[in-house]
Amino acid sequence: MTSRSSSNIDRLRALTVVATDIDRSLDFYTNTWGLTRVADRRGSIWLRAKGIDHHVLVLEPGQQAGLVSITWGTSTLEALHHLYEQLVAASVKVEEPPRQLGSPGGGWGFSFVDPDGNLHKVVAQREDYANEEPSDTRPIQLSHVVLNSKNADQLVRFFTDVLDFKISDQTKKMTFLRCNSDHHSIAVAQEDVSGLNHFAFEMKSWNELMFGAGRLKLAGHKIQWGIGRHGPGDNVFAYFLDPDGYATEYTAELQRITDPNHVPGRPEQWIRPPERLDQWAFSDLPSAAMKNAMHSQFIRQL
Ligand SMILES: [Fe+2]
Fold first, then answer.
1. Which of 31, 37, 173, 275 gives 20 to 30 Å between its CA and that of 76?
2. Stated pTM of the model
3. Distance 249 CA to ligand 1 centre (A)
4. How far is the CA of 200 from the centre of ligand 1 (A)?
5. Can you tell me whether residue 210 is helix, strand or coil?
6. Using 50, 70 and 90 to split pLDDT, how confident is the model at 273?
7. Distance 232 CA to ligand 1 centre (A)
């Protein structure tokens, strides 16, 4: 599991996305994907995984699919306040000072906006669950989010210089960033659109990932990319499309980086022939639908 934070933010906790048909999305994420409904409020639905986090995904009803917010955690209330002061000092658009939250999961929190206009929330003292060892084939937690950016260098600098994330690896197109020992909790892809690329849920091991992928297949959801093992991060992957067309991934065995002197991999180290996009050379290339989903503009401008 994860250890040691290199910034005030110490984990990725949850993602909120618009669901254009919330009953359809709820059916997918509970009956097929393997999350559990824990709260409802004003039409939105909160879903948990098998890990400690109160929730990992919030479905918000809306007309147009899009990323609403990314929620990060700090380990203490003190770290939350410290981060707030750090963001104010850096002239980041911070929407409200830390306050006690009345939304499901509770705790304390505030929100800020990154240079691309993505909304981020930071929380501490959540009403989390006991840390029991997950024993079945459902996701444990949100693993990572990947954002497309028209100004990737600027967005990466925001994560490193303002939020104190560390770069784990860089390919020609993508920068992988960590806030704890997980190889990446977020990655930024240079694209000609800005917005959500995909989001991934962690499975206990490759075996649970296979059971999960099988469950999706039996329910009629074609694997859109995978099963394979990525280069940067070394994680096993299986990508699907949710009912709104979001690219959503099961992943397992993500590399943990504990060496404080870790040297990020450079783009020239990650060059592969175009027909071989995973280490095993087992996976087909991403489907056209998956490429399209990863290149969409799933962003809600504030
Ligand atoms: Fe991923």
1. 37
2. 0.94
3. 6
4. 5
5. helix
6. confident
7. 10
